[in-house]
Every structure is written in C-alpha cells, then in structure tokens.
Amino acid sequence: MSTPREQEAAEYLDKHKIIELTDNLTSMLFFYRPDRPREFLIDQLEKLKVSKVGPGNPPCLFNESNLDALFGILDPSHQGFITSNQYKEALKTLGIKNFNEFPEGASDDRISQETFIKEATERLVGSTATFQQ
Amino acid sequence: MDAIVRPLRIPPEMGIYAEKHDIFHLLQTLVRHLMVDKPEDPIQYLINFLKRDSVDVPRIILLGPPASGKRTIAKKLCEHTQAIHITFLDILKEDSDLSRAAQQHQKKKQKIPKDLWSQLIQQRLSKQDCVRRGWVLEAIPETQEEALCLQEAGVTPDHVVMLEAPDVVLIERSSGKRTDPVTGDVYHVTFMWPESEEVAQRLETPSTVMPADLIAKKLQKYHTEAHALKRTYHSRLKTINADQPHVDVFSQVLNYICTPRHSPSPYTRRILLFGPPGSGKSLQAKLIAQKYGIVNICCGELLKAVSADESHMGELIKPYLESEQQVPSSIVLQILTERLRRMDCSTRGWVLHGFPQDVEQAEELQESNFIPNRVFFLEMTDDIAIERVTLRGVDPVTGEWYHSIYKPAPGPEVQTRLRFNPRHSEAQLLKRLKDYWNHAANLQAFYPQAVYINADQDPHTVFESLESRIVGQLPKVLSNQETFEG
C-alpha cells in the first residue's frame, strides 16, 4: 500500500530517469576508476547537461570502435552478417534493455553490420540521455 | 554473445576501488538527497551537491534533560568537528521575517505554530555554513510532534545522542549552574569550576535557575517526551550516561559519531585467517561462512579438489600431493586466484586460510589484487596446539572426528576403532609449528592492520570476537581531527 509520498517519489524517479542515470554513472566509475571520483562525476554530469541542449551525444561507455570490435567477434569469418539471436544477445550484453527485436534483415536472419551499429548507437544514446525528454 | 563459454568475471580491482572511495555510500547519499528535495533539474542539483562536497558532514541531534551537560558537549563537538552549533534561542535571535514572527508569538506567550517552527529550522539548516560544515542541534526537537515535523521537512540527522542521568543528580546540577555571560559556557559550582580566575569572577547565576520542586516538574515533563522521542529516532539513537566526568561523556559521544551508520550499501568481506595448526582456523572459517554466506576457501582442500578434477592443473599437482611435498607457490597462486575470481567470491566475499604461508606468498597475493579487508591472527601457545592436535582421532566407520579430551568417543568400541592420522603425530606437529612461527613475525609485519584473537578459548567465544570485527564497518576518521587531550 503506497502512500502519496511514495507514489510521488516513484513518479519522480521515472520522470527524470534517475535509476538509469545512477546506473550509467556507476558503470563509468568502475570502468575508469578515477582517483578523484567526485570530480569525475561532476565532469560526466556537465557533459550530460551540455548534450541536453546542444548537438553531440551524451557520454557513453561504448563508442563506435567498441561496436565494430563486437561485431567482429560475432562474425569472425567476415560474412558481413550476424544472426538474429546473436544480435539480441549482443545488445543485451551491452546493457540495452528495450531494443527493436525486428530490425531490417531480421526476416532473413541476416543482420548487417550497418544495421547492428545503427540500432546499437540509437539505443545507447537513448539509454544515456537520462533526462526528461 | 554466443553461449557463455567464458563466464563473467568481475575484476577484483572494482571491489577494491569501491571500498576505497566508498562509492556505494556516495551514490546512495546522492539518490537520497534527490528523493528528499526533488529538484526540477536533477543534473544541475547533483553537480552543485558534488561541488559542495558535503556528503559526509556531521548531522547530529543532541538531546537530554535540563542540566545534563548538553551545552558543554555540543560546544566541544563543534570544536572538534567544525560543525555549526544551533539552539532554538540562536534561531530566534536571527534577523529574518520568520524569526520576527516567532518572537511575536513568544511575546504574547503563545506557542509557536508548528509550520513556522519547522520553517525556521529549515531556513537555518539550509544556510551555506550549515550545509558545508554540518550541524549539531542542541535540544531540538523537544517533543515527538516537533520530531515528526522535522522528518516531514526532510531534516534527518545521522546520529542522535540522548544524555541520561538520575533525577537527583540533575537537580543538584541545576541548582549549582553558573554561566559565563561572555562566551556562553556553562560551569558548575562543584563539578566544573572554570580554570581562570577572570572567568570565575564573571560567572553569574542564569535567570532560568528555579527552586528544586519546579525543576522536578520540568524533569517529569521531559521524561514523558523523551520516551516518545526515543521511539522516533530509535534507529540512530544512542543513550549515554551523563552522570560521569564530562571528558568521559564527550569521548563516548565522539566515538559514536565516528562509527559510520550501518548502511545498506554492499560490503563484501575479504578475510584472511592465520594461526598455528590446531588453533581452529578451519572451524572458525566454517562458522563464518555458514553464518554470513561468505565463501570458505581452505587452501589445502582447494588443492585436493583440483587434483581430483581431471583437469590439466589437477594432473600437474597430483605428484606433489601424493608425495607430500609442498606444491610450488606459483601453481598454488594460480589455482587460488582462479577460484577467487569467480562470481560467488566477488559477490559474497571470501574467507581464506592456509595461504599465504610466508611473506613472498603474501606479496604475490597482494599483487594479484586480492587484498583482504580483515586479517586475523589466532594466537595460541604451542602446548595447547600439541594437546589439541595429537589427540585427534577419526572413526573410520562414521567419519566423525573425536578428541580424547574435548570430544571423547561415545563408547569403547568406537574408541578402539579410532585411527590416528600420522600427520597429527607430535613430531610432525612440532615441525609444522616451527615453520609457522618462523614466518609468523614477518607476516604480522606485512599486515599491520591485523587483529589478534586469543584462540585458547571456547570456539564460540572466539567466533564472537571474530564476528564483532567482521560485522561493523571500520571506524571512519574525521577529516579535520585534532589531537584531543583527554
């Protein structure tokens, strides 16, 4: 039985995507392990603030070269395509929760590198733009 | 990815980093403040909050009956921690609209309305100096109603100290109370006379001194409220006996302030147990693992388990184990680090015994980044060790271990069946003890933070002493602590 204050709190969390924000910040902290965590956090938050108003993507743990490398692992024989299952598992491993299950090429079970990178980047930007849209 | 062939490993560096910078506590405080204040722009709010660097400032409420010494303790605390000292009179004397309105109510001898009161407190606490340096509220709140008001306003203390003393003492103290009009310090005719003559001459009897029966009434009123207040703050409350010399009271209060509150942030324990053979390491490790869900790793057993495996590693170490030679350090380290790196150890923590056996092994362990956060040395004299180990025997039918003195076999047939492990013979044991003592001093120097526990006691007593060190967090050091002449 949640009181009005609890409901307000839950709504606030949702509206401003606080949980995703803390998740992202925590992953950044553990990956980079800066010596001065507070300054690092302030930096990341400033970048996030800037990306809200201007062009450019919000700070994210994975960049395009990471995605290329990931595709390379999934497709060692350089066919240029990966299966639907591989695509889904890969996006899950990157930490993306709601993604498009049926991108271009899913019906043939052949998802091209381009599609993969496009979908992944879009979703990553979506999950790191943790502010009110 | 394709099926999980290489299982997920969390590098130990992450755990160590998290502990060193108290990351979870930081993040939890951030989210907590967000939820209380609910700003429209959380990102900017977080930036400001982090810049102010006020995550761990003291937030203390000091309560107690009249004449229990609150003023003295509060002032000392503020000196020590650089926090701001706040009493209700101070707030009223401020120059703001709210305080003027409050003064109006007081003049008419009316009770200040709840909303005004909580607004006053909030206003004072949101000023820059309080936010940056922390605060000590003396005798606020006085009733449960006020306490609930504060909670609603989002003012939450980290520590609440309640001073207690028998009524007789308080009445005696109250009648001998004297204040220094210049500094506001409180002294007493018998218990606390000021050191300098100059101050002694200035002392005057405060206007609030009353005859004994009125004081008794006031005390009674306080007691009715105190009970309710205790309930409201019970999760962070500590009651301290004020009927002792004030330096003792202060050191107890300071001790309490320095122990960080038990926070729900994850805290994995990495424990090392050292001790001569027979000191009960395996037993204690088993008890700890059982009670706290930590993974118990006994080095000897780990090696045996690996050699029983049909793996490459197992083949390597079989010959060593069969001929009872020491397995080379590098192999042991490899096996051990592989085990420690698994998910269950990273998430639940580990308790290790039987390794390292000397300083080189300890250094290698350190380099592979498996740094313990609790180290224990179980201490025992050699004759007790001999007594404990040499009299052990196993019943080959049931597999139960018995000891001639501490756990004798149930009946004579079992007694005759008992087999004694040659490893537990006196000659072997003396050799193992000698080895242990050779390395013990160096190991102790390598782990200066180790705690020494007397193992010559009942196993449950030993377990309790271990527990008390494992469960609490290590006390934090105040950032601007000066040496305290006590």
From TrEMBL, chain A:
Gene3D superfamilies: cAMP-dependent protein kinase regulatory subunit, dimerization-anchoring domain. GO terms for molecular function: calcium ion binding. InterPro entries: DD_EFCAB10 (IPR049760), EF-hand-dom_pair (IPR011992), EF_EFCAB10_C (IPR056587), EF_hand_dom (IPR002048), EFC10 (IPR039879). Residues 62-97 form the EF-hand domain. This is EF-hand domain-containing protein. It comes from Cirrhinus molitorella.
TrEMBL record, chain B:
The keyword Transport does not apply. This is Nucleoside-diphosphate kinase. Keywords: Kinase, Nucleotide-binding, Transferase. Pfam families: ADK. CDD domains: ADK, DD_AK8. One of its GO terms (molecular function) is ATP binding. Belongs to the adenylate kinase family. PANTHER family: NUCLEOTIDE KINASE. It comes from Cirrhinus molitorella (mud carp). The keyword Nucleotide-binding applies. It comes from the Eukaryota.
